[in-house]
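User: My collaborator sent over this chain with a note saying "see what the structure looks like." That's all I know about it. Can you take a look?
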Amino acid sequence: MVSDNIQSGAAFAPGARQQKVQAAEVGTGILKGLAELAPSTSLSRLAEHVGMPAAKVHRYLQALIASGFAEQDRANNHYGLGREALLVGLAALGGLDVIKVGIPYLQSLRESLNETCFLAVWGNKGPTVVHVEPSLGAVTLVTRVGSVLPLLTSSTGMVFNSFLPLAETSELSDQERAHGGAPTPEDVQAQVARIRATGWNQIHGLLMPGVNAVSTPLFATGQVLAGVITVVGAASVFTPSNQASAADMLLQTADTITRRMGGTRPTAL
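Assistant: Without extra context I'll predict from the sequence alone. Here is the result:
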C-alpha cells in the first residue's frame, strides 16, 4: 500500500509542479499589475488590467499580502506593492550599472555607424569617459577611458551641464570661465534650453578642430542622469548631414538604455 501510494504520488508530481509554475506566473502577473498601477489601485481596476476575474485576483492578493509582497490600505481598500516587493525592486535597481547595461548597445551603435562611440559619467572632476567603442575605420579618433572632458566646450559636457543640478556644475563652470575660452553665460543658457528641448547636442570642431560630435543623456529611475553617450568622428566624414542621421540612432539607443535602467526622459524633452 505504501509502495502504491509512493508510485501514485510520483505519477502526479509533474502535474503538481506545473500547477505551481502556473500559480507563480499568475502571482508575478498580479505583482506587475500592481507596479504598473502604482502607487495603489482598486481590486476591480487591477482585475481588468491583468485580465482575470476579480475573485481570482483577490485570492492571490491575500497570499501576496500574507507574504509581504502586497498591502491593502484600510482607508480605501486599495492595493499596492508591499515592503518585500519594494526591497526586491531596490535590489534589482542596485544591480543596474550604466556601464554594464550600456556596453552592448554602444557596441551595436558603433557597428551601425562605424564611428567612435563612448560613455561618460559624472566624476569628481567632471564628465569622465568610462567606456570607448573605437571606430573600425582606417582613421580612429582616440578617446581614452579616464579622460575628463570640459563642461562648457565639449558636446558631452554640455549635456551634463543641461541636466545636472546647478549645485553640481557651478564650481567647474566657474573654473573653466576663469581660464578663458568658455562661452558666455547667455550662450550657455541658450544651449541648455536647446539641448533640453531636443534631447541631444552636437558640435562641429569646437573641442578639437576637424572633429564633430553628437551626444545625448541616459536616465535611471526617477529621471536621474546616469551618463551621456557620444558619437565622434572626423569632420571630413562625419558631416552635418551624417550627424543628423547619427543623432536619430543615438536617441534610439539612449531611449533603450534608459528604459533598461528603469528611467524615463524628462517630460520637457
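A starting point for your reply to your collaborator: Strands lie at 70-72, 79-81, 116-123, 126-133, 201-204, 211-220, 224-234.
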